[in-house]
Amino acid sequence: MNQRALLEVIALGPEDAVAAQAGGADRLELVADMAADGLTPPRATFAAIRAAVDIPLRVMLRAADGFAAGDAGDVAALCAAAEALRAEGAEEFVLGFLTPEGRPDLAAVTALAEVLDGCRWTFHRAIDRAVDRDALRRELAGLAGLDTYLTAGAADGVGAGLATLVAEQARTAADEPGYAPRILVGGGLTLAHLPELRAAGLDAFHIGGAARPGGWSAPVDAAAVREWRAALDVPVVAPV
Q1: What pTM was computed for the model?
Q2: Spatial distance between the Cα atoms of 204 and 56, rounded to a whole number of angstroms
Q3: Which of 35, 56, 76, 152 is most solvent-facing, going by the fewest CB within 10 Å?
């Protein structure tokens, strides 16, 4: 029996959240300011979305565009934001920071993981900018709560990263060290990519702009999400 593939949709507010759930989304990634590629949403926005839908929510922890966490004060502020969101009821998160050399910023990531105290979280597409993807996974292995990598397989998007995604899924299936977290495919993902990815065993997908035919200034369209849900509900045929 084929396991239902997970579909995660970016939501900026309650209207997005309601439409995404109506279209068949399994989970939402909550962000603010997509002009900066997604920042931490206000506590009040999280509360409004949590009240509007009953599917899981992962909340972005990111204060500025790019993949740098900033200085100690910036990290402390982000930790405080995480604490406030947890107090509001947030239970799942998204984060990821690199050093200027492209290695994981272990100080920032560890500080946030400690504040999250076992809450489940995704390391986002910072992995696609890392100087060494395999080393990053091994350095982060064992951090409490880390259960997902959001990745396109390449900085330029899924089209360029297909081979990497397929290879990493094989390493996850083989239980290699550092490859236990689930791969959530996102970043330039299109419906045309799904057959190859699903045939390789990938079963979690993330969309943002694809859920908004009218662009980022328009809300999530339930019909667009429903098209993705239908495509993901087609049974995977194993290679002969």
Answers
A1: 0.96
A2: 14
A3: 35
At 33, list the tokens. Answer: 């300011």
DSSP string of 48-110, one letter each residue? HHHHH--S-EEEE--SSSSS---SHHHHHHHHHHHHHHHHHT--EEEE--B-TTSSB-HHHHH
Contact 36, 64 (CB under 8 A): yes
Separation of alpha carbons 127 and 152, rounded Å = 9
Side chain identity, residue 207: I
For residue 190, how many other CB atoms are within 10 A of its CB? 11
Residues of the chain with pLDDT under 70: 1-2, 238-240
Q: Residue 1's pLDDT is what?
A: 39
To 10 degrees, what angle do helices 14-23 and 43-52 make?
Answer: 30
- How many C-beta atoms surround the C-beta of residue 124 within 10 A? 27
